[in-house]
Recover the amino acids of this structure.
């Protein structure tokens, strides 16, 4: 029997896409496909794309075209992910290089598609389930942290966001199913679990899980081997006192609050169909800091939403100074087809958006550096993610993987959990000595 085809998968976009890719790879393993060691040698080259904003779509198309050029002759090219889901039929016409375009809804058919494309005729005893959201991931930890997606889709209607259009309404996984996945990952050596969903704090509303996210946290918090549980993407109105109290008190949940605030101007937030204004955001932050004085806070903001005035940018700048967030990201507004915001008047010129973004970033960089400097002399429990050029790179509860700063240590091996004292800080990074 000829050997099975080899597959290469490049993943773009957010942690939720990474989780999908890991689950798809496990399915491909089960189906007898082998993993290629390089893209150039693969029989099937796949790209899991992101369609979040214009820049992400551009990167996705560029990656597909790059892989089309570099793949070996005869290799099949398959486009997966959000772009495939959102632009299924258009993409097939626009990217003739692709042999197949398979959106998330069709992942159940992916193996059959690959069999047809490669002409491989395997003997298989089991078929894959249709929806990978509910599938428990096979632990193959490459890092001491892992993302676990607890729900897919979103019921909110933010006017700038196309996610509900192509990811659909919220569908939460059953808590037992989530616990099983976390237990498997922890048994394989993962110590930090990062829970993700489009609207994480709304978890459970669509299923019979009355205690929602708080009950889920309690239900999974005692999994053996779990050292740190982190939550990403908290919609401000969903952050209840019960959730804050649970995050402040639990020994395993990181007191790390990733607030999805988007702006501080009340009128712009109304136009985004989002709650609050700078003052209410500050109230929320004060509630969090009262309950958890050690809390680390992160947020992300959209710059250049239609109609944003200089005075709105001033409002956001004043808010940043008052909020003293530990970390913040700023994203240029990008009009998304089919969203109400794309039809709004008052589009801001790209150069102006870049200028506003730079100005806000500078303000936040100073604040981040100041917050980081305040940790000098404090002790933290950290996990070493990797050793880079001989230097162990670690994170405490204050730093989420891949988006925040890091701590550079004097010793430590990947996967080790250590007690350290911060010795100095440099912008978003710090150095720390290991306490034995
Ligand atoms: S809550 Fe997040 S995912 Fe949901 S519509 Fe708003 S921005 Fe999009």
């Amino acid at each position: 029997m000829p050997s099975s085809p080899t597959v290469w998968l490049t993943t773009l976009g957010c942690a939720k896409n990474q989780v999908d890719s890991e689950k798809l790879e496990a399915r491909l393993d089960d189906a007898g496909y082998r993993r290629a060691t390089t893209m150039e040698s693969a029989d099937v080259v796949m790209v899991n794309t992101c369609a979040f904003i214009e820049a992400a779509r551009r990167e996705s198309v560029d990656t597909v075209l790059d892989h089309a050029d570099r793949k070996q002759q005869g290799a099949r090219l398959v486009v997966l992910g959000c772009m495939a889901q959102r632009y299924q039929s258009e993409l097939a016409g626009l990217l003739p290089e692709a042999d197949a375009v398979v959106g998330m809804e069709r992942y159940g058919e992916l193996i059959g598609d690959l069999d047809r494309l490669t002409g491989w005729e395997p003997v298989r005893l089991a078929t894959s389930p249709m929806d990978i959201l509910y599938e428990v991931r096979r632990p193959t930890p490459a890092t001491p942290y892992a993302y676990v997606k607890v729900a897919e889709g979103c019921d909110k209607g933010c006017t700038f966001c196309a996610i509900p259009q192509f990811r659909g309404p919220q569908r939460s996984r059953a808590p037992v199913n989530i616990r099983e996945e976390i237990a498997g990952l922890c048994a394989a050596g993962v110590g930090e679990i990062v829970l993700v969903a489009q609207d994480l704090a709304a978890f459970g509303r669509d299923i019979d899980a009355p205690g929602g996210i708080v009950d889920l946290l309690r239900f999974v918090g005692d999994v053996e081997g779990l050292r740190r549980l982190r939550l990403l993407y908290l919609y401000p109105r969903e952050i209840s006192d019960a959730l804050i109290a649970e995050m402040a008190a639990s020994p395993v949940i990181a007191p790390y609050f990733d607030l999805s605030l988007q702006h501080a101007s009340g009128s712009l937030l109304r136009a985004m169909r989002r709650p609050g204004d700078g003052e209410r955001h500050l109230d929320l932050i004060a509630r969090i800091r009262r309950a958890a004085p050690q809390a680390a806070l992160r947020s992300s903001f959209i710059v250049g939403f239609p109609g944003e005035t200089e005075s709105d940018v001033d409002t956001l700048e004043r808010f940043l100074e008052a909020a003293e967030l530990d970390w913040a990201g700023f994203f240029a507004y990008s009009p998304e087809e089919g969203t109400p915001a794309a039809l709004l008047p008052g589009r801001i010129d790209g150069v102006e958006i870049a200028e506003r973004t730079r100005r806000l970033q500078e303000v936040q960089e100073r604040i981040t550096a100041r917050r980081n400097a305040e940790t000098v002399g404090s002790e933290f429990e950290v996990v070493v993610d990797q050793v880079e050029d001989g230097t162990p790179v670690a994170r405490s509860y204050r730093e989420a993987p891949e988006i925040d700063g890091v701590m550079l240590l004097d010793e430590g091996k990947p996967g080790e959990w250590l007690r350290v004292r911060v010795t100095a800080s440099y912008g978003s990074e710090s150095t720390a000595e290991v306490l034995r």
Observations:
- The first strand starts at residue 6 and ends at 11.
- DSSP finds 13 helices and 18 strands in the chain.
- Residues 6-118 form a domain with the Rossmann fold fold (CATH 3.40.50.12160).
- Residues 350-373 form the longest helix (24 residues).
